[in-house]
Amino acid sequence: xxxxxxxxxxxxxxxxxxxxxxxxxxxxxxxxxxxxxxxxxxxxxxxxxxxxxxxxxxxxxxxxxxxxxxxxxxxxxxxxxxxxxxxxxxxxxxxxxxxxxxxxxxxxxxxxxxxxxxxxxx
Amino acid sequence: xxxxxxxxxxxxxxxxxxxxxxxxxxxxxxxxxxxxxxxxxxxxxxxxxxxxxxxxxxxxxxxxxxxxxxxxxxxxxxxxxxxxxxxxxxxxxxxxxxxxxxxxxxxxxxxxxxxxxxxxxxxxxxxxxxxxxxxxxxxxxxxxxxxxxxxxxxxxxxxxxxxxxxxxxxxxxxxxxxxxxxxxxxxxxxxxxxxxxxxxxxxxxxxxxxxxxxxxxxxxxxxxxxxxxxxxxxxxxxxxxxxxxxxxxxxxxxxxxxxxxxxxxxxxxxxxxxxxxxxxxxxxxxxxxxxxxxxxxxxxxxxxxxxxxxxxxxxxxxxxxxxxxxxxxxxxxxxxxxxxxxxxxxxxxxxxxxxxxxxxxxxxxxxxxxxxxxxxxxxxxxxxxxxxxxxxxxxxxxxxxxxxxxxxxxxxxxxxxxxxxxxxxxxxxxxxxxxxxxxxxxxxxxxxxxxxxxxxxxxxxxxxxxxxxxxxxxxxxxxxxxxxxxxxxxxxxxxxxxxxxxxxxxxxxxxxxxxxxxxxxxxxxxxxxxxxxxxxxxxxxxxxxxxxxxxxxxxxxxxxxxxxxxxxxxxxxxxxxxxxxxxxxxxxxxxxxxxxxxxxxxxxxxxxxxxxxxxxxxxxxxxxxxxxxxxxxxxxxxxxxxxxxxxxxxxxxxxxxxxxxxxxxxxxxxxxxxxxxxxxxxxxxxxxxxxxxxxxxxxxxxxxxxxxxxxxxxxxxxxxxxxxxxxxxxxxxxxxxxxxxxxxxxxxxxxxxxxxxxxxxx
Lengths: 122, 762
Fold this sequence. Notes:
The structure holds 2 protein chains of 2 kinds. By secondary structure, chain A is α/β, with parallel strands linked by helices. Chain A contains 5 helices and 5 strands. Chain B is elongated. Chain B starts with 5 loop residues before the first helix and ends with a helix.
């Protein structure tokens, strides 16, 4: 399964890529929303996106919005949004875009992998 | 049967009225019905044909409205179904049979109801004859005809079907006759009171009779049906109401019991139970214990992160924001979000408020709505585990003490003492190096080998805690992050020192007395044996020898019941050294004069040590100046604390003076605080110094200066039957500072002066 990791923090991205690769996921990485969007567009096997919210160029939400705009609505995409703060407005917008998973930083990698496995079974 | 209520009666009457209207209409269409006889015939033939083909049901096409309406009416009256297999339930016959009757009526025949049971006539069979039949034909003849026909196989008497009829009044027959316009219905009628069959007469039913019977049947039947329905309804209603009430009662009782259980759980459980809603707010129902735990707070309706922030002020805004964020990511969201965010929810917490420290544990339990898979609430359990923690802490201390003791016991006393003394010395020198202002590299290169040696020795002796602490120092020393070097190294060194002192302390508290005493006594015993042997072998007068033995025994007794004052005071050396170290002063020298022949009775040793600890603390802390001050005033950097005993044989008390070579009492301070007098007498000094609350220091140090010392010393000395005073040292020049000494008078019952002879033995 292919996962797209989008975060402007090199260390967080490296950590995520590391643990995902260890679990033998195919991993694509980008350091901002725009790059993430381009990567997603050119790789239709990406089924999961893990993205930060605050990022240069396009933020996480804007990137997902753009992706959802293009996306075949029948395609099932799991999005994990990394948060440092949250507000009802942000939540509402995310919900409209079908984002169902949030994670407070710092990420708990065991929990993330366990949830991803459960989603595959679902 | 009576309808249960007046209302039902009224309704019933209204129904009956409308029924009558319907019946009127019905009979208005009667003519049309009979006019459509040929259409009916076609139908009947078709039904018959279908029946012959074994089909049990057919649907009438509504070609003839009148006929179908009529059959409808009839079927309703008899609870029949049009177009199916018709059953006249009351009569126990199927309507198919009646259709056969129709058929026979169409090819004009005569239906005769012949009683099956001639005695009651309650059950008849309907028999169709192929020939006209007179109502007056006697039954015997009829029966004969029937038998004859059966024997000869003639067609004359055709038994078309047998319909059992319970009522001999021919109700059903009337119905049939009514349907069969041209057919005749002949029913048996009893003549006279006789039960003899031959007395039976057959009566042909008139058409009017048939009509009215049908009308009655329909009306009655409908009426009955309606009543039946009402009764059923009412019965059901009552039953259902009762049933429902019963279940509701059971349920409400269960609910009541349940809610009582929950309430009592909430009232008595020693756990804080909160339910957090989707907005993060705490619900109204919280366990009583919650209120007891957080007395000053109104928990209900508070956001849970605000509660945490309120009960634990050391939780900074960053931690609280994370908890809030984690809960927002979880509440109202897919249940998997709990797993992704639970790591920011606290599981335990140390809440420090002035005066109290509480250890709380938290359990977070999301409630997932089964339909949506979303978390709609969160149960939070909060437990106060302070007592358990305290016990755990005490136990760990005890465990450690036991371990340390067993480690010490693996060694002999000499090795232990020398290891401890050497290590303390080494670490103190390390600390001096750290504080010396040498370069970091220099410090590192100087102290690394020292620490390594201490670690090696500790391992050799099996002192694991010291070894571990040394290892931690080495880790810090070897850490590449040079910026962090000095501060943590100093504190790590300090903790090694504390560890070593702990070993020493445990030894002092538990083993020192024991081992010293045992060793001493063993030695005394051995010496006594030697001495006695020597006396026995010695030349000389017996008197002389007995005298010697007497003196020897006196000395021996003395050494068993007393301890040398000098050796008691010498134990303070390490104490004053470490104290000076804390105060950043050079360790002082302890000098003693004239203590040689003084011995303290063992029962007073504890009190004695307390008194001298106070006095020496006072000297090191208040008396001795800092190193710089001493050097500036031309003194040696190490201060001297002198303990001097003055006594003469035969006196009932011993005088002990304690003084240091510091600058003396700050008279200005005393003047400023207590007296404006220029000259301060000894008597006044004594009054001030031994009063509770006295301190000449502006700030209490950690070691002394809280003003509780001297008054308790005075109390302790008095408990020994002695006294203590301060005296200015005469001959010193007047000025701001007045050198002084403590003068103790101790009775010889406490401090014994032993003879030189005794001393030799002891």
